Amino acid sequence: MWAGAADDALLAPLATAFVAAKHPSCPMPRTAQFTAADAAAAALTIGPAAEPTNQAVATTQVVLGMPREMARAIGWPEPLSPRMAQNLFNQDVTWKSLGHPEWGSFKLASPDPDKTLVGAVGFGALATLASGGKFLTAAPNYAQPSRADFAVVHSEPRIETVTKTTDEADALMGAASIEEFAKKASAIVTTERAVIAHNQTHPDTAFVAVPLLDGAASVPIVATPRSDAGAEEKALAGYLATPDAAATLRQAGYRNVLGEAPTVGASALAKTSTGPFPFTGEMLAGIRQVWNLMHARSSTLAVIDLSGSMKYPFDKSGVTKIALVRQLGLQAFELASPRANSSVLVLSHRRWQTRHREPTAIAAQ
């Protein structure tokens, strides 16, 4: 989003190129002093589209914004791999196991996938990585979950901070130190362009962009003048849609519609081999449906029979009934969100007992 002073250093080349372009399809501004600040004041919006569109003037990758040291620990400058995503979501790899217990648990911040395009594409990409690289078209298998299913289910609870807008999520990059940032998040679902803009204004606390799906996770960028904007701002929006503007947009931190990298902020970027993938409205609807299903905070009550008959084998395998109940109970609690309310009701011939138990405590019984 073109938001004024914070973006002027990146976006000033747009106005300069527009003034110099003399493109026949664009009326020239009345003055050569037309600047990025002028356009910002006139509310010319340049930023991610609200929904899929074929009117894009550029693209930007949806990435995990992370401090460089944290990103290197999980493989940057390579894109986030399916294996690493599964390990992080299933806690097979933790900051402690990577030598940084001071960073706490791995947790994400994201704009709401149900309300923002960046959030929806980001969650869809993370769930795809968690499933081993297979695009998620339905909810995971809760009855007989594989390692990938567990990773998909655990991907949602790792998003501990959900913001209403992308700007609110991006604001978390303003932490004064990596230690302060780690208290709130390990990574932010954001855009490559937002990381570049942050680094332009906060070089002392620079972030890097960790690509998702090898760069395929991207959103279209649109230029929209407000209805009451002047002729100059409307003309600039028209200029941005021309091929001549592509190089200038890359100077402003965006990729062109084919996915060619920005020509600024290279130190924060990773090499990717995949161009922008067009997430359709149908795909986004599916992603949001899965998000809302997984994001629901359902309560779980496990009723366990501890009568003598539970010591007998369930079938010819020799597994006792109580052992099977323990296994199924543990699986149910591992699949449940850590923010859901869970209880255990124990029933025997002697008495009723009810108490709250953590999944690890149940497994130890």
Task: Quickly describe the structure.
It contains 14 helices and 10 strands. It is of the alpha/beta class.
Structure overview:
It is a single chain. With 365 residues, the chain is α/β, with parallel strands linked by helices. The protein folds into two domains: 1-296, no CATH class; 299-364, no CATH class. Helix content is 38%, strand content 16%. The strands form two sheets. Strands 1, 2, 3, 4, 5, 6 and 7 form a seven-stranded mixed sheet that branches. Strands 8-9-10 form a three-stranded mixed sheet, with helices on one face. Helix 13 links the parallel strand 8 (300-305) and strand 9 (342-347). Helix 4 packs across helix 5 (117-130), helix 4 (82-89) crosses helix 6 and helix 5 crosses helix 12 (281-295). The longest helix is centred in the first third of the chain and has 17 residues, at 5-21. The radius of gyration is 25 Å and the shape is elongated. Residues 1-6, 22-37, 39-43 and 359-365 have low confidence and may be disordered.
